[in-house]
Specification:
alpha/beta; Spore Coat Polysaccharide Biosynthesis Protein SpsA, Chain A; 2 domains; five-stranded mixed sheet; 12 strands
């Protein structure tokens, strides 16, 4: 049973021009069993009616406004700063994307894991489709080969829960449903502005791990996600202009300049050059294959 003594959670959601997705996410948050929470939506210059929808359908949600130049990192930092002005050290911030639909016990299960492991950041399991196939859970990173792997990707959620403990260690955490203790934010500072849209979440969590914070995924805390709504896809259906655009656009996880920036911020110095070489080779080979299969 939740009481006023339980920590307050500040849920920070960057949004821009995805009104229907934002609405679905907020409705799911309204159904959460954990009630000690403030929802902070950072609307970065939406022009599709998102602002009107928020004011009429979700009047209790705190809305912060941007001008379209915040991207994920700037919007998240703005929401976190608002929360930190009001939060106690025992509270936490939860970063969330608007293309997610949390299960009704999601927030309570994140908080349960956080209570059990007080010096930890706690992430969620992302699932997709009616079969609840795992899109992402944990990640391991080989800093010498720039290889990322998730042993649970593709498994069904019930199978993961039957063979895994209630929390799993991870080398990094996505910003898509991660609880960050206020003490960690005050200790570590903001998300890296040099990574405006992708990889700032990974860099922040890697930075936290190096300062002694544990990175965990709560296997009972699931989010439904829509993979097709995320960013500019690298293969882009083999369309040459989009494939090439994915190599430089902020909306793409494969933008070369930001991948190099992530490496310089997060990779151990001894592995930096091999990491960059392997990472960029992999991205360029993948893009080349997409062009050949158009």
């Amino acid at each position: 049973m939740i009481t006023v003594a339980d920590p307050w959670l500040y849920i920070v959601i960057p949004v821009r021009d995805r009104c229907s997705l934002t609405r679905a996410c907020l409705r799911a948050l309204q159904a959460q069993t954990y009630r000690n929470a403030t929802i902070i939506v950072v609307d970065d210059g939406s022009t599709d009616g998102t602002r009107r929808m928020l004011s009429t359908e979700f009047p209790t949600v705190t809305v912060l406004e941007g001008r379209g130049d915040l991207w994920w990192t700037g919007a998240t930092n703005l929401g976190c700063a608002w929360a930190l002005e009001r939060a106690k050290d025992t509270d936490a911030v939860v970063t969330l994307n608007d293309d997610t639909v949390p299960g009704s016990h999601w927030l309570a299960r994140l908080q349960t894991a956080a209570q059990a492991y007080p010096r930890a950041l706690v992430g969620s399991v992302a699932v997709a489709g009616p079969e609840k196939r795992v899109e992402s859970a944990t990640v391991s990173i080989d800093w010498w080969t720039a290889k990322y792997s998730d042993p649970y990707r593709g498994a069904d959620l019930a199978s993961l829960r039957s063979r895994a403990p209630s929390v799993l260690d991870s080398a990094a955490l996505s910003g898509k449903g991660t609880l960050v203790p206020v003490r960690a934010l005050r200790e570590l500072g903001p998300y890296a502005a040099r990574l405006p849209h992708y990889a700032a979440d990974y860099e922040f969590s890697v930075r936290a791990a190096r300062r002694g914070w544990r990175l965990l995924v709560a296997t009972q805390a699931e989010l439904e996600v829509s993979p097709e709504t995320t960013g500019l896809h690298a293969n882009s259906g083999g369309d040459p202009p989009l494939v090439l655009r994915a190599l430089w656009s902020r909306r793409s996880a494969n933008a070369i300049r930001y991948r190099v920036r992530f490496a310089r911020l997060a990779c151990p110095r001894t592995a930096l050059l091999p990491f960059i070489a392997c990472d960029l080779t992999r991205v360029l080979v993948h893009s080349g294959r997409a062009l050949r299969h158009q």
